[in-house]
Amino acid sequence: MKKSIQFVLLFVSFVVFSQTTRFIYDFKYKTDSTATSYQSESMVLELNNDEIQFYEQKAIRIDSLNALNNNGSSSYTFEFAKIKRKLSTSTNKNYYFLRGDYWVYESNDKIEWKIENETKKIGDWTAQRATTNFGGRKWIAWFVASLPISEGPHKFNGLPGLVVELYDTKDNFIYKLLKIEKPKTTNTNIVETVFKKNPVSIPYKKFREMQIDNYNDPYYQFRSMREGTWAINVGGQKVTTHEGLNKVTRDLQAYLRKNNNPIELDKIISYK
Question: At the top level of its lineage, which domain of life is listed (predicted)?
């Protein structure tokens, strides 16, 4: 109990006195809903004064390398959205890399929670259960009222305490808080800078059209070029012909059809 109280006091000092606090989550996910095993990633919920950033932890290392690399490019990619919002608000900026460029669109994602009486121990904390329907899935969250921040992973905020565990009822996506960090330095614009490209603001409808275009013709820029004047590497395979483009296009389309399990299921695209 003493250890738990000390941790809570330390947490409060982070929020009140530190410009930046990072909450590190283990994120297990299935890009293919029929898969029997998970992929995993360490994710960061970063609090900077009155602003939240949510991104993958490896972006910190990539961003540091980018600062040392002056060639103006980055090979970094990640399939899920990076998120930025004002603390305890529901207007999110969604950042994606697609078709060689970096994009951002805004979404209003107010979450209606049902807080339940059930509690359980998660480490030294007493966590309380809450449920919601969001993005075409039913979600179960466990929040800790003694960690006084109304935030959580991805877009899941609005509860009277930090979300320390979150999962959908089909167990496609599972977030668990691992630790809390107080970094000495940080890039408060990491979600904008990690690709070394300025994000272009577009409406969601336009972004969705681009996703469909990317499926239909992912290597469009090479089709009008004469063979012998270009070469690309796709998954370790060198492609130099239009016939080769057709093959890697079919391969990518098959991959996208199989790995078509977005966090927000109501935004799924029916690839054909």
Answer: Bacteria
